[in-house]
Amino acid sequence: MTHNITLIYGDGIGPEVIASAVKVIEATGISINWDKVIVGEKALEDQGMLLPDYAINSIKTNKVALKGPVTTPVGGGFRSINVQLRQTLDLYANVRPIKSYPVKNCLYDDIDLVIVRENTEDLYLGIEHMVGKDAAESIKIITREASERIIRYAFDLARKENRKKVTLTHKANIMKLSDGLFLESGRKVAKEYEDIEFEDVIIDAMSMKLVQSPRNYDVIVAPNLYGDILSDMAAGLIGGLGLAPGGNIGKEIAIFEAVHGTAPDIANKNIANPTSAILSGIMLLRYIDEVEGAEKIEKALTKTLKSHGTMDLGGSLSTDEFTDEILKEMAF
Ligand code: ATP
């Protein structure tokens, strides 16, 4: 069977890390027809739109995409392309696994948790306005429907992956209505999953506890903004953004992409770490039930990370050399 998958190379280091992920995925022998689409600055230049209809339609038709990071031009009043994609396609769950691999700058060798971030509301709706000249207001929206849906997703994921505990993070002591509603939703949904432990932790304490004792966490569910900040912080625990993959998952459609952005400081230098993009590819393969291929890549990647590294991991390999090492491992 051939899988049709939309491919977005993206901007900055996107084309380099996505090219690496595609090579590694193709080395599994899984038959894939990559439907390449362009979004972002290049699409704006060529087609006058940051997010052209044909790109959205490709994702809607294929239902699965692998995506590099994309730049939204600053100024010009453009809304973030990433946020637009997640909202237009209702990709309500942002799933970000944080797992230790054998690299020098991983702070703990046995972290294995998943951050489940609500992806459609909160401050990311971008409802902002000036109040006079000297004050600005951002509106934070939290709904019962979106809260219950993401919390249920977190519990279902815990069950599916045989995980034991869901930790909900919030700041309901201050934002009694909005975060209060998220917490209340958590307490309600938790009653439907009595086989899984449930706890709630205030976001500031959560940040400290996650750094001090990451092993205590299994699945963390968070509103949009806290989930975003917490996942970058958690990436720092395992060696940095070069190692953190993600999936934006809806009812029928999913887009897999690394947690990191375009990293313009290291773009076009052949030094970016493609691991996050490759791990996002592994998540994609599991999502389309190509589990054997996913495992083959993860094994080869883990071996390569143990013996070699890219510069962000204190190693010396270029993006291409690192990719070639994985391909060699896969050929064994
Ligand atoms: P954007 O504005 O698109 O979010 P950014 O540079 O502000 O881009 P990130 O791309 O998330 O933010 O990265 C922050 C820093 O982390 C980068 O400047 C880069 O040095 C490092 N980094 C991120 N991804 C990688 C990677 N894959 N390999 C190596 N270093 C990386």
List keywords for this structure.
alpha/beta, Isopropylmalate Dehydrogenase, 11 helices, 41% helix, 17% strand, globular, binds adenosine-5'-triphosphate
Question: How would you describe what is shown here?
Answer:
The chain has a 10-stranded mixed sheet with strand order 2-1-3-12-11-4-5-10-8-9, with helices on both faces. A two-stranded antiparallel ribbon has the order 6-7. With 332 residues, it is α/β, with parallel strands linked by helices. Helix content is 41%, strand content 17%. Strand 8 (165-170), helix 6 (178-190) and strand 9 (197-202) form a beta-alpha-beta unit. It has helices at 14-26, 41-47, 53-62, 81-88, 144-160, 178-190, 203-212, 224-238, 275-287, 291-307, 319-331, and strands at residues 3-8, 32-36, 64-67, 93-99, 112-118, 128-130, 136-138, 165-170, 197-202, 219-222, 247-249, 254-257. It has 2 domains: 1-95 and 240-332, Isopropylmalate Dehydrogenase (3-Layer(aba) Sandwich), CATH 3.40.718.10; 107-238, 3-Layer(aba) Sandwich (Isopropylmalate Dehydrogenase), CATH 3.40.718.10. The model has no long low-confidence stretch (mean pLDDT 96). The two termini are 25 Å apart. The relative contact order is 0.17. It binds adenosine-5'-triphosphate. The site of adenosine-5'-triphosphate has 17 residues, from loops.
